[in-house]
Specification:
This protein is of the alpha+beta class. The chain is 48% helix and 8% strand. Helix 4 packs antiparallel against helix 5 (89-105) and helix 4 runs parallel beside helix 6. The model has no long low-confidence stretch (mean pLDDT 93).
């Protein structure tokens, strides 16, 4: 109301003067643009609160992320081709320290993150028989490895690393058809998708790549119609079909999985990769979906966290409508640009 009282007289004053009105309109546009930049304040605040690792932090989220971050360096080193040489002094010592912190924190030794770390250390220890460390570093490395690797703990073949690359044959046509058939659906039947099918699709999408394999994505599945309605009220792309949804997924990224603010874009990259895999995994199971963008003001984002019981350290990436398409569902043709228009080939 106050805004209208202040702006209306100015608009009337400049109306007879076209040049002045154009300048005023440009000024308003710039003010609105600068006003939107306040959205970054929330990003900065969240990064400061959650996106820095500290040695005293014993939370499962940060400790597991840092452990994966370190031992995955060893995994990658074990896969490098060419003449073999010693590598990995810093990450192996860091991994061993993190394993010790894991024990002090009392986390399960049956956790796949822990098992992955131990199996990687075993593989790295075997590699040292071929490429031993320099003599002045050998004692510290072998002492750390001996303290970490519990010889009484049976090996876990399903977690052993590295493994041979396995090319996939005979699926080109199937995958191409999957991509062609996938469309954003905005008409859903009242048949509820079985939860186990959704969970199977999530398990397949879990194999998506991520920075240092940290897998920062988190999935919230909502099945209560009232809660779905409250969440959809905060999103402006579900008009006309949101009321049909019996399943809504909110995909988030755990900010605690990233070591500092230099990784500020990585939550979106990693969770975007996961989201696309999930969409295709749902499509492969006959389940339709529709991406619902999450481009909202900070206050709406906070309300969604509250309505969805989503923790503050979880960054909402997107909503995903999920369900069976209605019998008469129509989808946009959605023509695509030519590959040439988006491709630049850099070739000598």
């Amino acid at each position: 109301m106050l805004k209208k009282l202040l702006v209306a007289p100015v608009n009337l004053l400049v109306k007879p003067f076209p040049r002045a009105k154009r300048r005023l309109d440009e000024f308003k546009v710039n003010i609105r643009r600068w006003h939107k930049l306040r959205y970054f304040i929330g990003d900065i605040t969240q990064a400061k609160r959650f996106m820095f690792w500290a040695e005293h932090d014993a939370s499962y989220a940060k400790l597991s992320a840092e452990l994966i971050f370190q031992y995955h360096k060893l995994e990658k080193g074990l896969c490098i081709s060419g003449p073999k040489r010693f590598f990995g002094r810093d990450p192996v010592l860091a991994t061993c320290k993190l394993v010790a912190r894991w024990h002090r924190a009392g986390f399960s030794t049956n956790d796949p993150v822990y098992i992955g770390a131990i199996e990687t250390l075993r593989a790295y220890r075997n590699r040292l028989d071929e490429t031993p460390p320099p003599s002045h570093e050998a004692a510290s490395i072998f002492t750390a490895l001996d303290a970490c690797i519990d010889t009484s703990m049976p090996s876990a073949p399903d977690s052993s690393t590295p493994v041979p690359y396995r090319p996939t044959d005979g699926t080109t046509e199937i995958f191409d058809q999957l991509c062609k058939d996938r469309r954003s659906v905005r008409s859903y039947s009242d048949v509820v998708v079985p939860l186990d099918l959704v969970q199977d699709a999530i398990a397949a999408a879990q194999l998506s790549p991520s920075a240092c394999n940290r897998q920062p994505w988190l999935v919230h599945i909502y099945r209560d119609p009232k809660q779905i309605a409250r969440l959809l009220e905060l999103q402006n792309g579900n008009t006309g079909f949101g009321h049909q949804l019996s399943t809504l997924i909110v995909i988030c990224a755990d900010s605690r999985y990233f070591f500092d603010a230099s990784e500020r874009n990585q939550p979106y990259i990693d969770s975007g990769l996961f989201s696309m895999s999930l969409i295709l995994a749902l499509q492969a199971r006959g389940i339709a979906s529709c991406c619902l963008n999450w481009c909202v003001a900070p206050d709406l984002d906070q309300r969604a966290h509250q309505q969805g019981n989503i923790a503050d350290h979880e960054k909402i990436i997107m909503y995903l409508a999920v369900g069976y398409a209605s019998a008469n569902a129509l989808v946009p043709r959605s023509p695509r640009r030519t590959p040439q228009s988006m491709t630049t080939i850099h070739d000598n």
